Amino acid sequence: MMRLYSGTTDPFSHRCRIVLYEKGMDFDIIDVNMASRAEDIAVINPYNKVPVLVERDLILYEANIINEYIDERFPHPQLMPPDPVMRARARLFLFRFEQELYSQVDLIERGVVKSADKARGVIRDNLTQLSQILVHQKFLLGGELSMLDVAIAPLLWRLDHYGIQMGKDAMPLMKYAERLFSRQGFIDSLTPSERAMRK
What we know:
The chain is an alpha+beta fold. The chain has helices at residues 11-23, 34-44, 63-73, 84-110, 113-133, 147-157, 171-181, 184-189, 192-195, and strands spanning 2-7, 27-32, 52-55, 58-61. The longest helix has 27 residues, at 84-110.
C-alpha cells in the first residue's frame, strides 16, 4: 500500500493526489500540517517538505518524481507520453512550469506586496501564452489528459485564492480549467481546505 504524506493546501501534494485518483489505485493519504508536524516529515525527507510517497522501503519526494514513478508503476491510464521525444518535451514543460509559474507562487504566499503583485503578473502572462495552445486541442498535449494537465490544474484551481485575474484572451484556458475541474479524479483529490479556496 502506498502512503502519500500530503499538505492539505499544498499545490505540489495536490498534483500527486490527482495522479493517484486518476489511476484508481489503493493508497493512503496522510494529511500533514507542516506547522505542527514538520519534525515528522524531516525524518523521511531531508528537505522537510511535502509531498512524500512511501511504498515499502522506497521513499520519494518532489511531486514530478513521485508522479513519474506512479505513472511507470501503474501505466493505465498513461499520463507521460510513450514516445521518448514527446516524453522529453513533456519533462521540459514540467521544468518550465516549476521555473516560470510555481516559483512565483512562493513569492505570492510570502505576502510582500510589491513582489507578490509582480509574481501575479508573471503567472498571468505565462498562462495567457498557454491559452493559445488550448484553442485547438482539449488538453496541453492533445486529446488525452497528461502529466502537464495534472501539473497545472492545482495552480488553475487557486487563481482566485492567489488574487490572479485572467483577461478575456485567456478564455480558452478558463474553459480548459473547467474541463479539468469536472474530472472525477480531480474532484476526489480535493481536500476540504482546497474546496474552500473557490467560491
